[in-house]
Amino acid sequence: MLKKIPLHWQILAGMIVGLLIGFVADRLGAQQLVKHWIKPFGTIFMNLLKMIAVPLIIASLIKGVSDMKDLSRLSRMGGRTLALYLVTTAAAVAIGLGIVNLVKPGAGVAPATREKLLSAYASEAAGRVTTAKSEQEKGPLQPLVDIVPDNFFAATTDNRRMLQVIFFALLIGVGLILVAEEKAKPIKDIFDGLNEVILKLVDLVMLTAPVGVMALLAALITESPSADLLVSLVWYALCVVVGLAILIFGLYPALTRLLTGKSYGFFLKGILPAQLVAFSTSSSAATLPVTMERAQESLGVHEEVAGFVLPIGATMNMDGTALYQGVAAVFIAQALGLTLDLGDQLSILLTATLASIGAAAVPSAGLIVLVIVLGAAGIPQEGLALIFAIDRPLDMCRTVANVTSDACVAMVVAQSLGLLGPPQERRLDDFYPRP
Ligand code: ASP
């Protein structure tokens, strides 16, 4: 019977049930029950997705790159992908800055609320500042150094080092293009097969998605901070959410419509399950397997493009995070009574664009790199404490934008290379295993 209900409805139902369980448990003081008996199912779901992510990146990138046959094709696809990623990210920050300057949510924060927030989250904020500072102290070229692993196998054991895995996989793909066909073929066949197997595993894992997201959301509700602190941040949160909504429901479907001719409904319906998983897990890396599957099978992106564009996008293209950083930086400045001139705002635009590239595709990463944005604009980094209370729900929303942007760019790049086809009929609307 369940088989008949499309997956996205099942996930949505799981989310609603999770929220209800969370609220009821919170009311009844049953937080421990949720922690010990429900949350573990969410953790298992997250782990299953993360478990697949690294092998998926390796198999899909090696296959994707080596299929290109020549390096000029690779550089063409790479150039377009990076250009689109940069343009959409900068546009996202600009939208965020426009909204936050218009609404001025920070100007209305009462001094007493400000003090309360600053003291409630001072120690957490200090922890994030220390993490970010130790990164900053490494020097301006460190991000470049960080891309190249000294040990590939060590890199595969840490989801924060995805960029290193991508780098290695790209190089292997290039190597396969350069060696003789008969030497390359057996290796390519292995990764081709592995790719298929992993996509099949995504099918299986997604069968557990409704229960997984239910557990994640129930745990989230019982663990979130007190409501009165959240309420004081409503205007700030609204600015972020409205900005993200403009991206998700405006910019990306409009871009795909304009540049690929596909309708709003086609794009949004195709990517919906990935958006729901992104919302529940707050991690683009964990969502990557689902994004890959939806892009190929519902949006019609050829596997050569999806295998290249999406793993890189999950790690580097974070429009939602960048928008949030722009809004958060200006909000903190407003709340602390600082004025930012045009130069400061431009430096926020630049650093938020770059910092979002450096943010790992895991929960709360955007909050850590926000420290760098604040530093660049001369805003006291302790101000981070002001926005802590509401970060998690916003993280969930910005991850949705991050994933949607990746899918949009994948479609546009595929179209530009003549590699956007009809959705693959074999599994349209659900993730049940192929017969
Ligand atoms: N959670 C986000 C992601 O994985 C990153 C962030 O903004 O914290 O895409």
Explain what this protein looks like in three dimensions.
It is built from 20 helices and no strands. It has one domain: Proton glutamate symport protein (Orthogonal Bundle). The chain is globular, with a radius of gyration of 21 Å. The site of aspartic acid has 16 residues, from helix 19 and helix 20.
In short:
This protein has 435 residues and is mainly α. It is built from 20 helices and no strands.
Order of helices and strands: HHHHHHHHHHHHHHHHHHHH
Low-confidence stretches: 425-435
The backbone outline, from C-alpha atoms, is: globular
Strand content: under 5%
Structural class: mainly alpha
CATH topology: Proton glutamate symport protein
- What's the total count of β strands? 0
The small molecules bound here are: aspartic acid
> CATH superfamily, please?
Sodium:dicarboxylate symporter
CATH class: Mainly Alpha
Largest sheet: none
Radius of gyration: 21 Å
**Alpha carbon gap, first and last residue:** 17 Å
